[in-house]
Structures are given as C-alpha cells and as structure tokens.
C-alpha cells in the first residue's frame, strides 16, 4: 500500500533444511535440490520518492546488526540499488528514490540477507512507482539479481530446483522454533561452492544431478514434527563451510550439548541454525549461548514472503 511518498516492505531470511548440490553448470552456478524455510528474521527496505533523479541507498540506524560499512557497498553494487534500477528500466521509468535498509539478517551469513534486501526493494518500488507487477514477474526479474531472490519473495517453505529459483510451495501446518548463531566473520558463497567441488574432486566423486528432495522431509515439515525433521536435515555445503571455518564445529557441538534437537550450517554459512522442540527450549538455548558469550537470535518459521507494510 502506498501512503504518500513512501513505502516500507520486508522480506525474510532463510534456512535450507535440506540442500543437495549437484554438478557445476556452464553458467558458473550449481544445480540444487533444496527445501527452503523462511524465518522471522526479516530485512526491511523503506523506499521514498526523491525530487531529483537517482537512486540513494542508506543503512538505517534501526538496523539490529552492527554492520561494517566496508562489507556493504551502498553504490551501484548494492543489491537494493540494482533491484531498483532493474525494476525502473523494466517499467521504463527514471528512478528518483531513496532506499533505507534496516539490516537484521547476518551479512555474508548463508541466510540470503542480500537476496532478502533485493526482494524487499523490488516489492517496495513496485508499490511506490505503481508498476503493478505480479509476484511472479518480480521473481523473474529478481532471479537476475541472486538465486535466492525468488524464494525471499515467495516465503513460507518451498522446494527449490534449478539454481534454487524453480520453486514449489511446501506446506507447514504450524510453527518451527530455531536459534541461529551468526559468526563474527562472513564466508563467500562462491568460495564455499568451490571448496565443495574441490573436496569432491579429490575424492573422485561426481555429484549426480539433483532432481528431487526427500519426501520424508516434506512430511516432517507438513506436520510439523521437529524431532523427525531434526534427524533428516542435510546440507551438502556444510562440510565445505567447516573445511573453511573449522571453528563452526565447536558452535554445532555446543548447541547440541545445550539441548538443541539438531544444528546445521545455514546455506553456505557461517551462520549455524539450531532446531528446537518449542519456544521454551529455544529461549533456554539462546540463554545458554549468551552465558558463553555468543550472540544468537530466537526465530520462528515459516515467515511470509516479501510484503508491503500497511
Ligand atoms: O545468486 P547468488 O549471487 O546468491 O550466488 C552467489 C554465488 O554462489 C554464485 O555466483 C555462484 O558462485 C554460487 N552459487 C552456485 N550455485 C547456486 C547458487 C549460488 O554455484 N545454485
């Protein structure tokens, strides 16, 4: 909904409860079969009309993350900037917009924070400029910005094939409880994929083309049964992330010793996500991390896809 000269939208970060990585494709991406789950940690983008043409991107002081400006360029390389420019050119508009990002999802953390920014920017600008594009049309544009943008637009839970952009909604008839532990450092997604390729090559392993996900995971999500789900979670990128950042093993071990049902590296990492039995268990786990000097977030899932705030 556009009210006056500004629109605020948000989009969720994600956890992959299952991620199978296939071979490297000619376009530099890997084919995937994944189950995406959107979580209640949401990026927000406030878009306001400017008098002068141009796209200005700023970080909001309301951000809950202490973001090092070095890690987030605010110029034409920023995904929010690129999303606004792409939508404007698609709709034949000259952009004159200020975009304020409220950062909550860890930067370079494996939770699709950048893709969530792009998804929120697309939805905010679509409303601000009254472009009238559908979610599907925005997803087609968004997939040119990042493989996870279509899922951040869709939200909820979904099976992702292709590079993660061919999505089918999955059902979750309840709430799942998570604690995520961000790392003090980032991991480069391409580097994690490259490390997996190198580990596999050293073993002489040729990954098959992944074309489906485990039906048992979808059944466990549907109920949802966190105990069953915790025994089925799998992430092919985890070993590569652990190879690059062995200290994550300690975080995984600590969370499980403090009562999590299971821990998993989120996407390409280094954020680690722990599935908990219920909200009480999640809060107790977060307290346990806090006593050991680790920051964590208590989250629920599924969270809706990108939407404009009323
Ligand atoms: O699309 P996005 O910018 O998020 O991807 C970052 C990088 O991660 C890609 O350039 C590619 O190296 C790697 N990637 C991949 N296969 C995917 C998704 C990402 O190899 N399905």
Automatic annotation (TrEMBL):
This is 4-diphosphocytidyl-2-C-methyl-D-erythritol kinase. HAMAP family: IspE (MF_00061). Its EC number is 2.7.1.148. Coiled coil: none annotated. It is an enzyme of class 2 (transferase). PANTHER family: 4-DIPHOSPHOCYTIDYL-2-C-METHYL-D-ERYTHRITOL KINASE, CHLOROPLASTIC. It catalyses: 4-CDP-2-C-methyl-D-erythritol + ATP = 4-CDP-2-C-methyl-D-erythritol 2-phosphate + ADP + H(+). Residues 220-289 form the GHMP kinase C-terminal domain.
